[in-house]
Amino acid sequence: MDTEASRTTQVLSVFDFDGTLTHHDSFIPFLRFAFGRRVFARRLLQLAQPAFKHMRKKLTRDELKETLIKVFLTGVDEHWFRQQAEAFCSAYWTKLMRPSGLIAVAMEVSSGAEVTICSASPALVLQPFADRLGIKLIGTQLEVVDGKLTGHITGHNCRCGQKVERLESIYGPLGNYHLRAWGDTRGDYELLAAAQDAHWRHFHPAWSKRRSAVKRLRVAEPNVISKTDH
Fold this sequence. Notes:
By secondary structure, the chain is an alpha/beta fold. It contains 11 helices and 6 strands. It is globular, with a radius of gyration of 19 Å.
C-alpha cells in the first residue's frame, strides 16, 4: 500500500527538446554538422520537391521527415553517427541550450521527480544531451540493421498523441503521476493537455509567448464554434 501510494504521488516531469530546452531545432543543424556543408547542401536539393508537396498539403509533416531521414541516413554507420552526435553536443551545447531551461531541468531533478525529454527528434541525436543533463530520453527511433541505419523510423514519429503513448508505454498510465510538461509547438498539445502542470513556451521571451497565444486562439475559435453548433 505504501508503495502504491508513493507511486500515485510521484512527479513525472517531461520536457520537449527542440524550441523548448533549445533556442531552435537541433536535427537540421546536426545534419549540417555531421555531413559538412557541401554534402548537406547537395542532399538538401533532393528535398525540394517533397518540401513543395508538403507546402501544398500533399505530404504530411511526418512523411516529409521520413523522406529527410531516408535521404540523409540510409546506409550510415551507427557507430559513426553516435560519434557525430557526441561531437555535435560538445560543439553546440552553449549555443543551442536555453539557460533557463537547464535551470528548470536541474530543479526538477533535485526535487526528486522522474525527469525525461520527450522529443520528435531522433533519440540517437539527443542521447548525449540527455546524458549530460542526467535525465532519461524518449525520442523518435531510427531503424538499425547490422550496425547500419536503414533510413527508416521504427514505429512512429514521436509527436502529438505519440508522445503520450510513448510515455505510457514506459511509465504506465499517466494518471498514476503528477504530470508536469513543457512544450512549444502543435506537436506538444496532447502532452500538455494530459498534464496537471502544463507550461507553454515557458522559457521563451514574453513577446514570443504573447504572439503564440494569439495564434492558438485563432486556431481554437473555429473548433469552439463547431462544438457549440453541435
